[in-house]
Amino acid sequence: MNLISKDYLAHHGIVGQKWGKRNGPPYPLGGGDYSRSEKDKIYKKRKEHNSIYNKKHFDEVLKEGTELKTLSYNKDRTKNADMFYSTHKKLDQYQYNALFNKPVKEVLYDENGNSIGSTKYLKYSITNIANKDIKVASEDSGAKAFKNLYSKDRDFYNFVTDPNRMENYFVDSKYKFKGYRESRDVLSKLADKDYKPTEKELDTIYRMFNYVLPSDGGGNSKIAKDVSTQRGKFFKQLSNNGYSAVLDTNDAIYGGFKAESPVIVFDMQAVIFSGAERTTLASKRSSYLITAGRRTLHM
């Protein structure tokens, strides 16, 4: 007697799929499932000098002992602060010194407090040392923390969707910032409370938020407190995710000179103040020449 079972499973493959190549669906199945051409393209992007691809998609780790440099007219800028901007790449340090270290006027006084003239001075170069490995959030990782707060914290949501609250930092310079020009249309759409922004639109708003992080409210204590409260939530979210710093996306990706790795450090326990010294006109000139030379090489 022959027994024939009608219960069996047959797999005839997926239209367009080749043997030995897992190409979905869904797409992609995993990081190792890219085609050779896709892998080559990604490898090429990652190997490019000052790779935008890396900064968007990959976190960075600054090893213990890394020197973090900050330029400021205030030599105590990083002391007792909740965050500070810094650079750890030499070329970035040269670029910032060349581009953003303008001489400012200083009035001189005698021992009696009488004005005896004036002079000009440059910024201080402030050094902090990483006392542990510092994990820096990429744009993707920063945007992920941002989106989490956007979806769960009502006050944070109100802040980042309110053009007036976000634009307080820009004053007259907002149209110079590419992130503002990109995000203003998204913010106008969000005026409709029923509008659901896309992931890409939320990324755009994140870039604007990343830009306003250091705002001091232009001397307005109420505005300063508002921004400080929201960035505190953002930094806490990043800290919970294992980060001590986040990429400065404007200067790294969207600014005109594309710094290699400018970071915003918010874990103040991860660094030790090392010192501050006044920069000189000679160092500024040297920085300009080095920057110009390196730009030419990488054009």
What does this structure look like?
The chain has 299 residues and is of the alpha+beta class. 41% of the residues lie in helices and 17% in strands. The chain is built from 11 helices and 10 strands. Strands 1-7-8-9-3 form a 5-stranded mixed sheet. It has a 3-stranded antiparallel sheet with strand order 2-6-10. Helix 3 crosses helix 11, helix 4 crosses helix 5 (154-160) and helix 4 crosses helix 8 (199-212). The chain is globular, with a radius of gyration of 25 Å.
Distance between the termini: 81 Å
The portion of residues forming beta strands comes to 15-25%
Q: How big is the Rg? A: 25 Å
Mean pLDDT: 84
Helix-and-strand structural type = alpha+beta
How many β-strands, per DSSP?
10
Q: Domains counted in the coordinates: how many? A: 2
Spatial strand sequence of the major β-sheet: 1-7-8-9-3
Overall geometric form: globular
Helix content: 40-55%
Helix-strand topology string: HHEEEHEEEEHHHHHHEHEEH
Number of helices: 11
Low-confidence stretches: 21-29
